[in-house]
Fold this sequence. Notes:
single chain, alpha+beta, 2 domains, three-stranded antiparallel beta sheet, three-stranded mixed beta sheet, elongated
Amino acid sequence: MTTTAHPTQEQALLALAKHRPLLRARDVAEQSLPTAVLSRLVNAGKLERVGRGIYSLPRRRINEHRSLAEAALQVPQGVICLLSALRVHGIGTQAPFEVWIAIPHHWPTPRVDQPALRAVRMSGPSLSEGLEQVSIDGVTVPVFNASKTVADCFKYRNKIGLDVALEALRDGWSKRKVDMDALWRYATIDRVANVMRPYLDNVNA
């Protein structure tokens, strides 16, 4: 005999989805709701599966940075960095199709179907300093602040290009989104102070 979910369970789950634009199976279990209801609601067209273990109401307005929230849910030890962080802070002209995320050196490369990820390995203060929390679709997403991101762009200039790092520095400075003292501090942490020095002197002139 096939059992069906009690209507009140479906209603409770849909109510939860209204408050959490990105709903995880874990969130459902924490509310003592059977996760099997998720599949039933997807089959009924009342929910959409937007990532591995992540669901959303159909036709919900999509945040520009939703992919970052999805990445944060699937790689909770990661930090949004480099081109993706520049986009969050409104610096430069980069529009990456991958989510750039920093992970600890000893962590394996995340295996995520969606969104596409570009993992960068960091350790120590380079990974723990300059963090800020941004709320995206109800998800708290760790992102490096603007000054740390600019310093990181110089550290990883071989991956993203020196021209991108220079654009980030100039645009971030002109928009007053970076602080010179903070830039020096993060440049020292990233061990790129000598690389950045001539550019910082010019932009501060």
